[in-house]
Amino acid sequence: MKGDVVLEAENITRYYKVERGSFQKPAILKALDGASFQLIKGKTLAVVGESGCGKSTLARLVTMIEKPTSGELKIAGVNIITADKKVLGDLHKKVQIVFQDPYGSLNPRQKIGHALEEPLLVNTTMGKKERRDAALNIINLVGLRPEYYDRYPHMFSGGQRQRIAVARALMLNPEIVVLDEPVSALDVSIQAQILNLIATLQEQFDLAYMFISHDLSVVKHIADEVMVMYLGKPIESGSRDTLFRKPHHPYTRALLSATPVADPFRTKERIVLRGELPSPIAPPAGCTFHPRCPSMTEICRDKPPEPYDIDGCMVACYHPKTY
Amino acid sequence: MPLLEIENLSVTFLTGGGQFTAVDRVSLNIEPGEVVSIVGESGSGKSVSMLALMGLLPWTATITADTLRFDGQDLTTISKKQLRQIIGSKMAMIFQEPMTSLNPCFTIGFQLSETLKIHMGMNRAERKKRAIELLDLVGIPEPEKRLSAFPHQLSGGMNQRVMIAIAISCNPRLLIADEPTTALDVTIQAQILDLLLTLQKEKGMSLVLITHDMGVVAETAERVAVQYAGQQVEKQLVKGLFSDPHHPYTQALLNSLPERSTAKILPSIAGVVPGQFDKPAGCLFSPRCKYATDLCRTTPPVVASLEFGRALCHYPLLAGLPTNYPEEVSA
After folding, report:
1. Could you tell me how many CB contacts below 8 A there are between chain A and chain B?
2. A193–B268 C-beta distance less than 8 A
3. What is the pLDDT of residues B220-231, one digit of tens each?
4. Is residue B215 within 8 angstroms of chain A, CB to CB?
5. Mean pLDDT for chain B?
6. What is the pLDDT of residues A171-196, one digit of tens each?
7. Are residues B37 and B157 in the same domain?
8. Which CATH number belongs to the domain containing residue B87 in this structure?
9. β-strand A313-315 against B4-15: which pairing, if any?
10. A221 touches chain B (CB under 8 A)
11. Domain that residue B145 falls in
12. Domain count of the fold of chain B
């Protein structure tokens, strides 16, 4: 992927301590265990995986809600681990987030106009009139009507609320927007509207998106690059076309085969995985996917595979499918 | 004879703002051993129609139907006691949220044997044996141990398996699955759908699958009923629905799926589903329909013939184009 790199992550990790009572040592939960990726201006990186794979932890790190336990995270060339408070404050404005559930992410007692103006109130020295104009401008931009300025969130449908959430994320002219499952709570016909809005805004403002999702059909539509995660580790990443046409990792292939396709005429390879996601507190030794993997061998149990390049994809597997 | 016959089923709720029609004259016949899917967005009345059938709606709901017959028995006239004997044994239901539909205070074993005790009259030893058998059938490892587990000790997928075990415990003739996999991950969803279809085939049950996911419909069902704002807008075989949709809503819905489009901007459906207070006068889909004419906006449409998939439309589509349409349209 070519272009201006706005965010660079090198082997970032995030561990949490889990208390287990007074007489036991706290356990270490490796929510994110070594992820490297780049976000490029005007491009979309999709992060795919099931619940518990560390997608949301990654979002928390990229939005600087939390700091990584180790590794390097550079936003606009600044390493956020060593940066001081003043620099970090400026960086916060450059990264915004849209959450999954538009019912939970808007304050029910705050008018839409005020919700939109709040980032300006905190971060800029704009006057009242300017803030109002900026808010009305953005309301128009996301396809809502100006009279919505004085309304409360409960007066809107899910799709409209998600538009408001997107509008709020854009108030400070960010460079990076993290979209954490932005359409999974919406109906199919509304989902298309929001996906279109997201695509148009990206073109207009040259935004870098990190699109977190579990829905592969949405990802296939919107992403430029895709990173598939399993139990805190990226197991395969590459450009959308290669990854969907030639998935190498057994987990990626299982995920693709498990995603229902709206085409009753298609016959496809069906790989049904046995078992469920293991506990991240005690992940399996070696490759974390080995207990569910159909092509598992001895070596998979002993040593975790290092990611390496196959046809332009980074794959962490001893037995990738080759084409 | 069909296992389930529903004709003109309507459900109205008494709300603070007056009467609200959640389900509007829905008809559906289900043959023994058939997989039928009801698909629609939120508020389309797909769950409410099935809950009405099961008698699980609150007192604010008024249910009317011309015919509501299950296995030869008329459900509109039988007593509550008789209805309770059918529900849970011959006709069972699985809900969307496995975590909230199981009681957190009781063990899996207890909740499983409850149905067996009430409907089958088994004694303790028989119940235990059957419960283990059922858990094994739905693919739960170490079933003896799991009997004493509480729902919070199992994952979402495992809880959904327990729900399925409870539902099939009395060998039902009809299983209604209300969005059984919406709360689950994709790989677990594939497992659960496979399990439901295997059980359906083995036991010769009829399966009604309520869903909003067109992908799930395409991969599991034989026949589909599409609902919009409480009305049934189209009924077809799965292959026909995807290759030649007859209602403009179905067509627009299929076109707006990301996987069926190659353009960066999806052909989305403008607007939202009408609510209680903004129901249009004519066809309910007319404000969002690209083919809508003055006739659509003023007169409610009637159900078209079988070859048009019983589409509720003035100009049912054929090969993507409206028939008897006043203007010239190109594809």
Report:
1. 117
2. yes
3. 999 999 999 999
4. yes
5. 90
6. 999 999 999 989 888 888 888 999 99
7. yes
8. 3.40.50.300
9. unpaired
10. yes
11. 30-46+81-223
12. 2
